Amino acid sequence: MTINVDRYCSLGDDQERQNRLKRIDEPPVAPLTEYVTALRAKTGRGSDIPYFDPLDGGIRAQCLFLLEVPWPKAVKSGFVSRNNPDQTARNFFLLNEEAGIDRRLTVTWNIVPWYIGDGNKIRAANRSDIEAGKPVEDPGITTTGCRVTEEVRR
Fold it and tell me: Which of 26, 127, 132, 136 sees the fewest Cβ atoms within 10 Å?
């Protein structure tokens, strides 16, 4: 069975998830995969922290979509992706498609990079969640290696 990999629900397919996992060390997503690996080690959360989607722009992205937290299906798929099999991903996919935004110009991440629900429902992120999810490297450097000014940090 051949599926369209850039469809809102394509990561519901086991084979497509495996295909994406094979690509997480390819440029331009490899540095972001290293970041996820370091964050997983720092927090001890392992696969609860999904990878960046290798179909997005990675470190070459011009637009960062910063969401709150990954939903359970993002954790299950292993990716923060518009191709996850859930309604939020579907809406995000369709919004980008309608706006004509080339996904290779974007990257998507979560301010709290792991699921913070109880299995039935996601709770709102609190200050300690956000603090725990801060980058593992120098706070003046974003995950894409771009310098952040003091004004932006405030």
Answer: 127
